[in-house]
Amino acid sequence: MADGCGCDALAHDLLSVPEALEKGLAAAAPIGMRESLPLAEAIGRVLAQDCVSQTDMPGFDNAAMDGFALRTADLGSGSRFELPVAGRVAAGDSGVKEAPSGAALRILTGAPVPAGFDAVVMQEHCERLDGRIRFDRRPQPGQHIRRAGEDLRAGETILTKGCLIGPREAGALAAAGYGQVQVNRRLKVAFFSTGNELRHPGEPLGPGQIWNSNRFMLRALLDRPWVELSDIGPVDDDPMRLEKTLREACDNADLIVTTGGVSVGDEDHMPRLFAAMGGKADVMKVAMKPGKPLMFGRRGGALYIGLPGNPVSAYVTWRVIGAHMMARRAGLSYRPEPLLPAVAAADYHRHPGRQEYRPARILDTTPDGRPRLKLLGSSYSGRVALLAQADGVAVLPAQAADIAEGAHLEFLRF
Ligand SMILES: Nc1nc2c(c(=O)[nH]1)N[C@H]1C(S)=C(S)[C@@H](COP(=O)(O)OP(=O)(O)OC[C@H]3O[C@@H](n4cnc5c(N)ncnc54)[C@H](O)[C@@H]3O)O[C@H]1N2
Ligand code: MOO
Q1: Across the chain, what does the average pLDDT equal?
Q2: Full DSSP string of 267-308
Q3: Which of 228, 56, 23 has its CA nearest to residue 147?
Q4: Is any atom of ligand 2 closer than 6 Å to the C-beta of 45?
Q5: Among 263, 286, 315, which is best to mutate for testing ligand 1, by the most ligand atoms less than 8 A from CB?
Q6: Is the minimum distance from the CB of 382 to ligand 1 under 6 angstroms?
Q7: Measured from the CB, is residue 233 less than 6 Å from ligand 1?
Q8: Model confidence at 95: pLDDT above 70
Q9: 107 within domain boundaries
Q10: What digits encode the pLDDT tens for the residues 46-67?
Q11: Domain that holds residue 39
């Protein structure tokens, strides 16, 4: 939609973005169905249980350095020390190593520190003689020893349900002894794009036809390890076909995402069809640009999100609202996306009205580290190529008309 279409005059009737997001999150109840998986298969999934450490972490006093363990009480006064080396202990060794009073033990990183030993001297600080070590820095008690439980005590929480099991979480779960974890079952997501004008990319185009970009953009947006994705493909603006597709999708999916057909045109069938099928539908007008029309619906166990057809509008509404709804439905805890402080790289003028998410490119950074943003074309809701050139969207306040070079902007980085 071009700038200055006049429709922004109605902006006061619109829901704000936080209001729309709140409504969306409230509609997106988690599916709450779980399964137990071996840890390796749980990577990329949503954790469905609170996890506590099953042992103290670390589980025993151990050496933080390769070197020599000793008892500081053996050192006496003076500034030069020499001790015999009475044995060796490596990571994985079990059993208590005995060492006579006044002797050191060769010790390797991760090895249990035998009882009574209270310091480790790094090998770099020791001169090694035949069966003895000499060093001239007095070690402090506790030096280079990782004490049992200093990280976490057995029973302390390491992760709470609702987090994504990424590399750090997988590592923490393994360290806490979880070989098997409860995760939410994959969210069944079905998607399709509506419109008679749509052709598969590369197919010859007749008059009035365009290549279907939303289908591929949505596939990339929705394909997550915690999602079981079903691509229904394009569907013509034929009410019978649309209704059949929607009905089947509602019967089989936890979440249905479509693009197009949610506005007020004669071929914008989705709101009416959804209601006719016995679903509860809500077409919202959101005070954001692009992405004004946005539809939510519920029918049986299915949640429906109808995104606007314009590709940039669909992307932005997905990023700002839809993605949070999908995440919540899959059981992920909601985390607001932080906006970064940035500055305008030039003077810009715009028509005030709706809060705008303008594709923007980072030119460079200011001396205090803020990105300097070039705002890309003002008429862009169909220009998906512009989105691909952007590093993110600048969030322009509803009432801002003139934005001066150097002015503060908020930036949602892709
Ligand atoms: N009288 C009004 N007309 C419109 C309004 C309004 O408030 N009053 N809102 C405008 C805005 S803003 C948007 S956004 C669009 C949203 O309309 P729909 O969701 O119903 O989308 P369509 O009309 O089906 O398509 C809009 C546009 O996007 C192109 N499109 C659709 N699907 C795809 C696809 N898969 N790949 C690429 N491009 C696609 C489609 O050809 C249209 O050009 O409504 C405005 N109108
Ligand atoms: O302004 Mo529309 O919402 O093109 O997205």
Answers
A1: 91
A2: T--HHHHHHHTT-EEEEEEBSEES--EEEEEEETTEEEEEE-
A3: 56
A4: no
A5: 263
A6: yes
A7: no
A8: no
A9: yes
A10: 999 999 998 998 999 999 999 9
A11: 34-56+151-184
User: In the prediction, which pLDDT does 6 show?
Assistant: 40
How far does the centroid of ligand 1 lie from the alpha carbon of residue 263, in Å? 7
In this structure, is residue 284 part of a structural domain?
A: yes
Q: Which of 85, 120, 146 delimits the end of a domain? A: 146
Q: Which atom of ligand 2 is nearest to the CA of 312?
A: 5
Ligand nearest to the CA of 212: 1
**212 and 312 part of one domain:** yes
Distance CA 128, CA 205 (A): 80
- What would the mean pLDDT of 219-238 be, rounded to a whole number? 96
State residue 229's pLDDT score: 98
pLDDT computed for residue 1 by the predictor: 36
- For ligand 1, atom 28, the nearest C-alpha belongs to 310
Q: 176 and 137 in one domain? A: no
The number of domains in the chain is 4
Rounded to 10 degrees, the C-alpha dihedral 342/346/350/355 comes to: 0
Measured in Å, residue 213 CA sits from the centre of ligand 2 at 16
Which atom from ligand 2 is nearest to the alpha carbon of 293? 3
CA-closest candidate to residue 361, choices 290, 292, 291, 409: 409
Contact 308, 259 (CB under 8 A): yes
Which residue is closest in CA terms to ligand 1's atom 16? 308
**CB 213 less than 6 A from any atom of ligand 1:** yes
Regarding the beta carbon of 290 and ligand 2, being less than 6 Å apart is answered: yes
pLDDT tens digits, one per residue of 352-395 = 888 899 999 999 999 999 999 999 987 667 788 888 999 999 99
CATH number of the domain to which 172 belongs: 3.90.105.10
Is pLDDT at 113 greater than 90 in this prediction? yes
Nearest CA among 211, 209, 210, 217 for reference residue 191 = 217
Claim to verify: residue 317 and residue 378 sit in the same structural domain: no
Q: Look up the pTM and report it.
A: 0.88
For residue 181, the model assigns a pLDDT of 98
Greater pLDDT, 247 or 99 = 247
How far is the C-alpha of 270 from the C-alpha of 193, rounded, in Å?
11
* Phi, psi angle pair for 28, to nearest 5°: -100, 65
* SS (HEC) of 310-352: CHHHHHHHHHHHHHHHHHHHCCCCCCCCCCEEEEECCCEECCC
Q: How confident is the model at residue 11 (pLDDT cuts 50, 70, 90)?
A: very low
The percent of residues in the chain predicted with pLDDT above 70, rounded, is: 96
User: Which ipTM value was assigned to this complex?
Assistant: 0.95
Residue 335 domain flag: no
